[in-house]
Specification:
Elements lengths: L26 H10 L4 E4 L3 E2 L11 H14 L5 E5 L7 E5 L1 H9 L4 E6 L5 H10 L5 H13 L4 H8 L3 H7 L7 H9 L5 H13 L1 H9 L6 H13 L9 H9 L9 E6 L2 E5 L10 E6 L4 E5 L4 E6 L2
Parallel strand pairs: 2-4, 3-5
Antiparallel strand pairs: 1-5, 3-4, 6-7, 6-10, 7-8, 8-9
Helix pairs in contact: 2-3, 6-7, 7-9, 9-10, 9-11
Length: 311
Amino acid sequence: MKKPMIATLDLTALDRTTPMPTPDPIAKERTVTAEVLGRPLHIPVRDIDEDPGQPRKDFTATSMEELEQSVRIHGVKTPISIRPHPTEPKRWILNFGARRLRASRAAGKTTIPAFIDRSHTDYQQVIENLQREDLKPRELAMFIKKKMDEGEKQAHIAELLGVNRSMVTNHLALIDPPSCIEEIYASGKCLSAKTLYDLRNLHKEFPKDVDRWCAANQEITRATVSALSAKLRGTQKTAITPSKNERGSEKQRSSPTPALPSLIVIVQDRSGTVDLQHAPQQANHLIVNFSDGKQEEVPALDCQIQQIIFH
């Protein structure tokens, strides 16, 4: 008689000496809790991408080397700011802290302390750099141009940045400037957007004169540009034909009238040259020829003497 067949189950697979790793069930909650409580998270540096729209582009090699050495020894003491990547899960976009992130990578750090700011805007990025005085004039100019290309008005841009509209206008002088002004900025001879704005306006009227003046290795300041403006625009005044008596008296003059000095003043962040040849109509006022070509009478107490140039 045959023995009945008995089915058996192989249960050896249930006996695992090494248990499979299980995901941390509270990892997400831990991240959310840290974010809500305002605590910095420690994010892997490999999971953070720099923002391609970051307005600040230039970092000096010396400052980066110093920061890298500091991070290698002490770590990052001030957390960076990040936001979730819009298309790639588990990745982040950098808001602030490009130098700290780059230094951490160079120092071989695997994580970096970071705060999550989901409401970040590119305006906040620029404002942060402006407040830290880390943004160069050309970088701010490129940001302003980008916003204007997107259809925003200068007044709106100035309002969101918290600056005067004139500051926005001045920085636009750094966009595609004449070669002489480009050279001045690139060489570091002058980084003042206001001064270069005045010089660019002057270049529109007197391109050859301004080119020669810039090539003469002049000191580029608001005072010297204002003096150049007064000199060039002074030659535009319409000459009055003297009468016969006046021509006769001119012949009798044995020596020419000495040239008056140029008195350069600053009036409420505007640079100009005092008109010393004409009397103002109001008491305790001065006639000032400003760099933008306007002539105004202003209270003498509002004028801060910047420079006196003797001819």
